[in-house]
Specification:
6-stranded mixed beta sheet, 4 helices, 16% helix
Length: 238
């Protein structure tokens, strides 16, 4: 499974999505800072599973329609920073989708995540990440889960990795930095957090119109990922 995560920088890079999907053969596309009122229902064979509704700039998840079927969606507001309370850029910072693999008869969870900006403390972002990872299991306890997005965590990543591992997840950085706008703050911002997946590679893709570079996560469910009955009730569906 190939998953692209991209912070569009206030929707400026939206025109690049078709080329990205086609060039890298994406199966899932996770977006941040998207104008959700201006998103198409389909992008080069990828179907819009859902997008957040209460954000000025929101999240969206697309999936390859001939491979997966969306059977559950969960959008969630997380603990707010002062920036959120004053400027209200984002009410919902997590969008998770449960996908049924049509051929393999297995389900996985994929989520788009956008942490509070750098004006907030790392401790608040860790709280948001911890809550997001826990809430994803509401879509299917024990299923392989992959959360990608803008974690806004350029420093002390080892500390973050330790906290994530304590929840049973693994934190994966891409092979080169993903944010370049300000010299002092350049570094890795866009991560992949997973459980029940084997992460083959996290690759930083060439820069476009956004100040974030997109990342491409290549992964597959670890051996032993449980199969499900296609009629099994889904939890956390919106």
């Amino acid at each position: 499974m190939k998953v692209i995560s991209y912070n569009l920088r206030k929707h400026r890079a939206a025109g690049e999505l078709v080329q990205l999907v086609e060039r890298y053969g994406a199966d899932v596309l996770c977006l941040q800072e998207a104008d959700t009122t201006d998103l198409p229902d389909e992008i080069s064979g990828l179907r819009l599973a859902d997008a957040t509704q209460r954000n000025r700039l929101g999240l969206a998840v697309y999936y390859r329609e001939n491979t997966f079927r969306a059977v559950g969606v969960r959008a969630l507001a997380l603990k707010k920073s002062l920036h959120d309370r004053v400027l209200k850029p984002a009410e919902e910072r997590l969008l998770g989708v449960r996908l049924h693999d049509i051929d393999e008869n297995t389900d996985v969870i994929v989520a788009s995540f956008h942490a509070a900006p750098l004006t907030a403390l790392n401790s608040l972002r860790r709280h948001q990440i911890r809550t997001a990872l826990a809430e994803l299991q509401q879509l299917g306890d024990g299923l392989p889960a992959l959360m990608v997005g803008d974690y806004n965590y350029p420093m002390f990543k080892e500390h973050l990795g330790q906290h994530v591992r304590e929840q049973g997840y693994e934190l994966n950085l891409s092979d080169s930095r993903t944010y370049t706008r300000y010299r002092f703050f350049r570094g890795h911002y866009d991560f992949a957090t997973s459980v029940g997946f084997e992460i083959d590679r996290v690759r930083t893709l060439p820069q476009g119109l956004s100040d974030h570079l997109p990342i491409l996560v290549t992964a597959h469910p670890a051996s032993g990922a449980r199969s499900v009955d296609v009629d099994e009730p889904q939890t956390g569906a919106a």
